[in-house]
Write a structure and sequence with these properties.
Layout lengths: L1 E16 L4 E17 L3 E5 L6 H9 L6 E6 L2 E2 L10 H5 E4 L3 H4 L6 H13 L3 H14 L16 H13 L5 E5 L7 H18 L2 E6 L2 H7 L2 E6 L2 E7 H6 L4 H8 L9 H18 L1 H4 L13 H11 L4
Parallel strand pairs: 3-8, 3-9, 6-7, 7-8
Antiparallel strand pairs: 1-2, 1-4, 4-5, 9-10
Helix pairs in contact: 4-5, 4-6, 6-7, 10-11
Bound molecules: adenosine-5'-triphosphate (ATP).
Length: 315
């Protein structure tokens, strides 16, 4: 049973121009996506730069204005209530960002950064608040000494842990993690990801994990949506997406993952090209009205959009 549903979400940014600076067009950053969140599950959002991943995350939490669509949280339409700082929705849905530097106030000590949501939502006594902050620091594997320090005194991985401590302070249901590890060294990435998995299990958290890295998403998420130009071209569970991708764009993303095992690399590459080619031949009639079989290399963005629209029954 899902606790939150995102229905036909669209976020369009106006493009202004001309002498009177009027709206001449719109960027369809998010263009009709649907998502459902169940307790304790991790959902991945993958796609190349500019496809609309961050806009999706930010619009869910209320940092971007929604053009149309709605967000239903625990049975209630919260689309126009997301910005209310004291709402249950604001407490239960938290976000962590790629750049921990800019999401932690450099002028505040760690204890005040972590205390922010606690003061807003939990109304604890000063002693209870201290205990809570110590507890949270212990959960994210940090020493109590960290409390009186400022963000610049920590490494990237530690800053991300502080951001996570703040995010989990009020027992959220969902954490939207926008590229949380891509600014970190590989070894630190693994530590933070594993730690995020641990707290997911411990607290029954759900994640919306935004990344351009299919390897990271495979490690973290059981359900994955592949995004292209503001739409989902394919959604499914991890096994389906990685072993039996249906959409050519997914196949292309997967084939772009560097293959670390040299044995059989050429065979795998040939197999991938063959599945792409089969797909193209099978679907040639709707993206090529003349019935021509396209050369894979000549496929353009327009074809991908046409294919995804067709798969949704739109063409
Ligand atoms: N405030 C804005 N005004 C106008 N266009 C915007 C705005 N924010 C984002 N866009 C555009 O919306 C599209 C989606 O941007 P978004 O940041 O969501 O992509 P993304 O998939 O998260 O990319 P990346 O992985 O590079 O962060 C892009 O074309 C971007 O240029």
């Amino acid at each position: 049973m899902s606790f939150m549903q995102i229905n036909d979400l669209r976020v369009h940014y106006p493009i202004r121009g001309g002498f009177f600076n009027t709206v001449i067009d719109n960027v369809h950053a998010v263009d009709g996506i649907n998502l459902e969140f169940e307790k304790g599950k991790a959902y991945g959002l993958v796609g190349e730069s500019g496809c609309g991943k961050s806009t999706t995350g930010k619009s869910i939490i209320g940092l971007e204005k929604i053009t149309s669509g709605n967000i239903i949280y625990e049975g209630e339409d919260v689309t126009n209530k997301r910005r209310n700082p004291n709402s249950t929705f604001n407490r239960d849905i938290q976000m962590i960002f790629q750049d921990a530097n800019s999401s932690l106030n450099p002028r505040k000590r760690v204890q005040d950064i972590i205390a922010e949501p606690i003061r807003n939502f939990l109304k604890l006594t000063p002693d209870e608040e201290k205990r809570k902050i110590n507890e949270l620091l212990a959960i994210v594997g940090m020493n109590e000494d960290a409390k009186v320090k400022y963000p610049h005194e920590f490494s990237g991985g530690q800053k991300q842990r502080i951001g996570i401590a703040r995010a989990i302070a009020c027992n959220p249901k969902l954490i939207i993690a926008d590229e949380p590890v891509s600014a970190l060294d590989l070894s630190v990435q693994a530590q933070v990801l594993n730690f995020m998995k641990d707290i997911q299990e411990e607290f029954g958290l759900s994640y919306l994990f935004i990344s351009h890295d299919l390897g990271v998403v495979k490690h973290m998420c059981e359900h994955i949506s592949i995004m292209y130009k503001g739409r989902f071209v394919e959604s499914g569970n991890r096994e389906d997406i990685y072993t039996n991708p249906q959409h050519i764009y997914t196949k292309r993303l997967l084939s772009a993952i560097p293959d670390v095992n040299p044995i059989g690399r050429d065979v795998r590459k040939r197999d991938r090209i063959k599945v792409e080619a089969d797909y193209v031949i099978e679907h040639k009639n709707y993206y090529d009205p003349n019935g021509r079989v396209f050369d894979l290399k000549k496929l353009t963005d327009t074809h991908f959009v046409a294919m995804s629209a067709h798969e949704k029954g739109g063409m």
